[in-house]
């Protein structure tokens, strides 16, 4: 990942901590925790690669895992240290490093891993493939990881409400039917969007076995405004929808049209 990405997350560090408090982004968190509880081993060592300010690391620590955080942004990693200490928890380690440099992690040392951001900030395919290969290396045989990508198809759907003005150029609209890489001028920073079939192919070519995949926003994808309204006006309905979205995040009829894809993979024995 480039200095553009590092600078972006250093500048947005506090906002990134608050991001999952947003009623719509909370759907992503609920779905991710559903997948962790369903597919991760009951105990063991986990590395949160691209940990950000530690929101998922805290949840893993609460579940009794030994957690190491690896994060590009030193400011986000410092927030993680503070928040983890405030929660009365202790991580196994903090590593400030680019995700393309996973050589600091020992081979076959982890029972599970989260790779929840790096793959959609690596616009070079070989760099993404290297992260995937290194993830396989550091997992124990049979170890599990959750890998995240931004989904072009789901972003197109969300864009109808959120940035439809960009579709005045039909080329920009049709770009979302396939993978695309955006530089820091066109994206929120350097970012890579892909489609479910292409992500699966990339993952399997790196030697990881696909267990399942999910859409982080499930059937609520693209409905951010309505989700916010329900959060304010009808908390019971919001709570029921949040739970149902998490529990159905793997459903084929929803997952391919979500903004974020979560691939649950296993290192082949």
Give a description of the structure:
It is a single chain. The protein is α/β, with parallel strands linked by helices and 269 residues long. It is built from twelve helices and nine strands. Keywords: Methyltransferase, Transferase. It comes from Saccharibacillus sacchari. This is Class I SAM-dependent methyltransferase. Its EC number is 2.1.1.-.
Number of helices: 12
Briefly note the structural class of the backbone.
alpha/beta
Q: Can you tell me the number of structural domains?
A: 1
Oligomeric description of these chains: single chain
Tell me the distance between the termini: 30 Å
Query: What fraction strand?
Result: 15-25%
DSSP E strands, number: 9
Quick summary of this structure?
It contains twelve helices and nine strands.
List keywords for this structure.
269 residues; alpha/beta; Rossmann fold; 9-stranded mixed beta sheet; 9 strands; 44% helix
What is the topological layout?
Layout: H1 3-11, H2 13-19, H3 25-39, E1 45-49, H4 55-62, E2 66-71, H5 74-86, E3 93-96, E4 110-115, H6 125-138, E5 139-151, H7 152-162, H8 170-174, E6 180-182, E7 191-194, H9 196-205, E8 208-215, H10 224-233, H11 235-247, H12 252-255, E9 260-267
Parallel strand pairs: 1-2, 1-4, 2-3, 4-5, 5-7
Antiparallel strand pairs: 5-9, 6-7, 8-9
Helix pairs in contact: 3-11, 10-11
